[in-house]
Specification:
By secondary structure, this protein is α/β, with parallel strands linked by helices. It has one domain: Glutaredoxin. The protein contains 5 helices and 7 strands.
Length: about 160
């Protein structure tokens, strides 16, 4: 009986440990500032680059895939916190086809949040800079353009808001 309880405690702690967000590699600390990028935004296919970002405003870069359940959940939460996020620039970037990204934009009515730029990462140029392996991956920069936090997986808006304080 004692061994069964120990085994159950071990299994429970193992489950808890695997439910945590995996840490990002230390190699990402080299991205202390916003890298140069060029994406094509939807719905109009206009080029958008790091030089187009507003100065002195925090930036959230969220790498996503339109068919990713966690990305869809994170997007719904962004929309639910529309008012709290209005002063934060959000750049949602996907390596998926322009058509798939545009459909995602329309399906989630992201036009309701003018602070969100959604775009297609041509040839996975920006994603390869960050060496992405998981969607969503979220990088949060403060108002000075310095990396504040980086997350892998669905984190929720409260974590984003906490990171930009």
């Amino acid at each position: 009986m004692k061994y069964v309880l120990i085994l159950m405690a071990f299994m429970g702690s193992l489950h808890f440990a695997t439910a945590q967000q995996p840490p990002l590699p230390n190699s990402l600390s080299k991205f202390e500032t916003i890298p140069a990028f060029n994406i094509y935004t939807v719905p109009d296919s206009i080029a958008f680059a790091n030089k187009n970002l507003q100065k002195n405003r925090p930036l959230v870069i969220m790498f996503f895939s339109p068919d990713c359940d966690h990305c869809q959940k994170e997007t719904k939460e962004l929309l639910a916190y529309k008012e709290e996020l209005k002063n934060i620039q959000i750049l949602m970037v996907s390596p998926s086809s322009y058509g798939a990204v545009k459909q995602f934009y329309e399906e989630y009515t992201l036009s309701a949040m003018p602070n969100i730029k959604l775009g297609n990462d041509i040839n996975y140029a920006l994603g390869s800079i960050y060496q992405l392996k998981t969607f969503p991956s979220i990088f949060i920069y403060d108002q000075f353009g310095k990396l504040a936090k980086a997350f892998v997986g669905n984190i929720g808006v409260p974590a984003i808001l906490d990171a930009v304080k």
